[in-house]
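Input structure tokens:
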């Protein structure tokens, strides 16, 4: 974004009225001229300078899902939702292409007032009308009457999100052949680290129905959040005023709160739940329920391998067996605290934290704190889920000296400083 965002733009954008034909990176990712057509178009034209009939023949042959089409209800293949600032960045790029586009949003009925104000600002700024999708009134009524307004604090947010978000989105996507999201890999290293740039949507169906009928494009998957903000400031686009109050990832009002310095941006969402539960179901196709790497499309990361070699190999780390960790659980007065990671060697998130965990173990060597590991996949997984609070890999537990029940590390930040602060505060 601007000159700082290599994955979206390799050119500096200084003025708002730059035409899309002059923005190289936008042409690469948003309005690519297909091979076999002229690379340039006359000034003011979006379509290649070929006769309409020949263009239509080429399009039918080479673009089976036809994002460019003359039918009004298929005309726009830009579709967006979730009103955080990087979504406005996508709208800005869509506007710069000069092509027709549509924007839709899910109105759950429980958004912040500031988010509704942003809707109005965006519509006026870009001269567009946002298409709002609402949940079925009868479904919301049944949920609230049977479980109350805040049942998600007690039994998880998935049921509420399914009624207010997932089903309305499913209805909206049934009329499209492609949609664009603002997912980024750095939003949540624990669940979104393998988001592809382009994929066949694994969760929803498009206009033609059936598997493979909907294309999902995540153009900012590889873009850093700081570069998004650089672009937003450069282009002077509307943003949600909640960002100035410490909110980063913004959803429904009851399920969103500001994050503290050093916290990851999605730690302000559904903060009462486990880190791997911080998804509402709209992008479940990118997340493996077992904690493995998700299935990927273009530009994604690899999948997990069950035969991966063991990790956390260090003399400073104790390798606990099943009897060893059972004894640790039973002890009421431990001579020294134990920091233990529940891991699976094939898990990419466990592999990613290996260096920091080994470094932490070496720092704590001789300090009176034991650092250990316990392989909790395979046959040990049911035990770990029942007794060790395992929901996803990796799970980090601290067994304090005077507390029987282990304390689970709540954050997705697994660098040495964060883990050390956790240990020192509870040892």
């Amino acid at each position: 974004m601007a000159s700082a965002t290599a994955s979206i733009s390799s050119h500096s954008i200084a003025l708002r009225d730059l035409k899309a034909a002059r923005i190289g990176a936008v042409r690469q990712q948003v309005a690519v001229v297909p091979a076999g057509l002229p690379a340039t178009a006359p000034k003011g034209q979006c379509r290649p300078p070929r006769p309409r009939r020949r263009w239509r023949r080429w399009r039918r042959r080479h673009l089976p899902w036809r994002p460019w089409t003359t039918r009004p209800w298929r005309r726009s293949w830009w579709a967006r939702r979730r009103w955080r600032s990087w979504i406005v960045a996508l709208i800005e790029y869509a506007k710069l292409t000069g092509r027709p586009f549509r924007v839709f949003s899910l109105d759950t009925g429980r958004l912040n007032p500031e988010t509704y104000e942003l809707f109005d600002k965006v519509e006026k700024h870009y001269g567009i009308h946002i298409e709002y999708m609402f949940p079925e009134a009868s479904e919301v009524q049944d949920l609230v009457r049977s479980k109350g307004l805040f049942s998600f604090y007690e039994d998880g947010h998935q049921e509420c999100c399914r009624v207010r978000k997932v089903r309305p989105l499913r209805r909206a996507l049934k009329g499209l052949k492609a949609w664009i999201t603002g997912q980024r890999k750095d939003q949540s290293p624990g669940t979104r680290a393998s988001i592809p740039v382009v994929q066949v949507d694994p969760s929803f169906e498009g206009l033609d129905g059936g598997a493979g009928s909907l294309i999902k494009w995540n153009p900012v998957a590889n873009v850093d959040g700081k570069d998004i903000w650089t672009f937003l400031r450069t282009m002077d686009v509307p943003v949600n005023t909640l960002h100035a109050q410490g909110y980063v990832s913004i959803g429904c009002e009851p399920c969103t709160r500001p994050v503290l310095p050093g916290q990851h941006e999605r730690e302000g969402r559904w903060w009462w739940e486990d880190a791997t539960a911080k998804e509402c179901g709209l992008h479940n196709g990118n997340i493996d329920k077992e904690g493995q790497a998700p299935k990927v499309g273009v530009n994604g990361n690899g999948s997990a391998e069950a035969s991966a070699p063991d990790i956390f190999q260090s003399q400073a780390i104790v390798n606990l067996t099943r009897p060893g960790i059972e004894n640790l659980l039973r002890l009421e007065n431990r001579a020294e605290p134990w920091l233990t990671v529940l891991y699976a060697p094939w898990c990419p998130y466990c592999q990613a934290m290996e260096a920091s965990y080994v470094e932490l173990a070496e720092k704590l060597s001789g300090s009176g704190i034991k650092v250990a590991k316990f392989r909790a996949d395979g046959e040990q997984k049911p035990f770990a889920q029942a007794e060790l609070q395992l929901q996803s890999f990796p799970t980090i537990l601290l067994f304090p000296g005077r507390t029987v029940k282990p304390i689970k590390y709540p954050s997705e930040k697994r660098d040495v400083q964060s883990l050390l602060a956790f240990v020192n505060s509870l040892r």
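Residues 61 and 308 are 43 Å apart (CA to CA). The longest strand covers residues 338-343.
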